[in-house]
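Thread amino acids onto this structure.
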């Protein structure tokens, strides 16, 4: 896997080839994720849309260099406004379509509020520290202590214990209870597709409602029945189809409704 050196250290990445004239896809993983944990989804989405795709692991994740500092309630803002812009600039990815999952979706929305993007696909985004989310993180901590989750993460990360400790430690910290990005998103005027499963142990449709209130541009939403926290893995056909439709209509003529619901 190639790496590129940026100011916070080396980042592993891969680029899937596609139409160089179309806005490229940039995939942003979840809090415990990395390149490999996307599985086949990036390749499927790139093939379906015909676009180039950049997939990378954040510092401390996968095979990227270690994160230089402990996580704080400002960490996702720093990823959105410092790390991601530098990485995109170094790799020559301009005005991308950001596809983020969980924390990656939060980073995508924050980035879109301050930087030019073609569109955003937010899979199971977090806009605030919801009690259900914190309960899910606490349950994950128990699963990690009992062994299975720890073994899974060890397969994907160079330093899996630090990945988990920093993720769970931040979300369950007292300082994070007031974390809320709804007020930071008004500058995001590009089209956004919000995707959420109704059986997600880490969040509810309240995050989509908050995003619709906060975002400054057109919003579409896809609600998936019987789907958990990873729509792109649990319902890949529905998600890929929805993204294709969304990107084909993202530049809809003025006068069309700014709020639309997509049904699988």
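Threaded sequence (264 positions):
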């Amino acid at each position: 896997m190639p790496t590129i050196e940026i100011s916070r250290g080396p980042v592993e990445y891969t680029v899937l080839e596609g139409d160089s004239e179309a806005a490229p896809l940039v995939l942003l993983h979840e809090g415990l994720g990395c390149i490999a944990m996307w599985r086949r989804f990036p390749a499927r989405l790139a093939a379906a849309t015909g676009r180039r795709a950049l997939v990378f692991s954040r510092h401390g994740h996968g095979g990227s260099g270690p994160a230089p500092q402990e996580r704080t309630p400002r960490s996702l803002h720093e990823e959105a406004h410092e790390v991601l812009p530098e990485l995109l600039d170094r790799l020559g990815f301009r005005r991308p379509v950001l596809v983020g999952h969980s924390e990656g979706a939060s980073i995508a929305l924050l980035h879109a509020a301050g930087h030019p993007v073609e569109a955003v696909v937010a899979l199971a985004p977090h806009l605030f520290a919801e009690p259900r989310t914190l309960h899910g993180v606490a349950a994950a901590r128990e699963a990690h202590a009992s062994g299975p989750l720890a073994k899974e993460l060890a397969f994907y990360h160079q330093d899996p214990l630090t990945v988990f400790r920093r993720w769970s430690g931040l979300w369950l910290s007292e300082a994070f209870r007031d974390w809320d990005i709804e007020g930071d998103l008004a500058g995001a005027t590009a089209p956004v597709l919000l995707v959420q499963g109704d059986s997600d142990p880490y969040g509810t449709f309240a995050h989509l409602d908050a995003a619709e209130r906060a975002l400054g541009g057109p919003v579409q939403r896809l609600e998936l029945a019987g789907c958990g926290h990873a729509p792109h893995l649990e319902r890949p056909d529905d998600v890929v189809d929805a993204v294709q439709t969304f990107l084909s209509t993202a530049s809809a003529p003025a006068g069309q409704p700014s709020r639309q619901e997509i049904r699988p």
